[in-house]
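[Automated response] Your request has been received and processed.

Submitted sequence:
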Amino acid sequence: MSEALRYSHAGWETYYLEHRDERAWGGVPDGFLMEHIDEVLVSGASNVLDVASGDGRNSEPFLERGLNVVSADLSPAALSTFAKRCQALGERKPCLVAGDFLSIGFIPEQFDAIVCFNSIPHFESPSQALYKIADLLRAGGRAAFNAFTPGDVAFGQGEKVGANKYYYRDTLFTFMTEDDLKSILPLSVAVVHSETRKWQEPDHGTYRRGTHTHEACFFIIEKKVGYVG
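Generated structure:
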């Protein structure tokens, strides 16, 4: 495990342990996802992967549709909280996988749809994360994700460790524009939709105090049919 990954594991595990008795990040599915979920779910989609799922806020809309969902996260505490909530509410349960996404042994083309919200910037290598997402998509499958831009409230906070890259409370942030992300997308995918938007979030306890404004670029990509790398 790299030093950066060890930092991230400790940071996220601490956050979710502190919030195990409540829904993290407001508990509301991402607004972009809810607006575009029908675009993400191509015809016949049944297997969905939520990358860096946390305690499940973006997994729940797919579970409610009766789909097979795998929720993967670096934090066992986050997934444990999600599992206990599903059990308490008598809700459909996902398959829960704790670990570094880049090291988990998923099978190529295993998923019809993949989502990864507010998490691409936390990977030590965002390009590797996107390449794995593309590899796990079946031909014609789609993924939705976002990345914080330099216009985000968190930009410049913490210790600078690279170009537009900071460590903040033992978590890593890399800030990117739409063009930055397009430049690292695998050749095996096409952009279906992209946009940059701002939104407000409530107080996140010790992690980020007070109501604050985020800015991120959002993407829907599709795995090309017949692509040969």
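Summary generated for your ticket: The radius of gyration is 17 Å. The longest helix spans residues 3-18.
If you did not submit this request, please reply to this message.
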